[in-house]
Write a structure and sequence with these properties.
The chain is α+β, with helices and mostly antiparallel strands. The protein contains two helices and six strands; from the N terminus they run ββββαββα. Bound molecules: zinc ion (2 copies).
Length: 77
């Protein structure tokens, strides 16, 4: 049993995620995403999946990266 570090829920199906050498404990993927997922610099949505990284900024898709950076960015294939 472990307590979720986002919502404080004490849940017997909680799990741990190790990110950048730090162990985080969550009760759900929703909480894990809330805590760990980067936020798109353009539209503000959570970046779940690979997303696009330009100059250290995260974007949810190549469209947002293009809008924000004004450069030509391709979605990873
Ligand atoms: Zn939680
Ligand atoms: Zn976006």
């Amino acid at each position: 049993m472990a307590v979720c570090e986002v919502c404080g829920n004490d849940y017997d199906m909680s799990f741990e995620v190790i990110a950048a050498g730090t162990t985080h404990t969550f009760d759900s993927f929703e909480c894990a995403i809330h805590r760990l997922a980067p936020v798109c610099e353009h539209c503000g949505c959570k970046v779940i999946g690979h997303g696009t990284q330009v100059g250290g900024q995260f974007y949810c898709c190549a469209h947002c990266a293009r809008e924000a950076e004004g450069v030509e960015v391709q979605d990873r294939v």
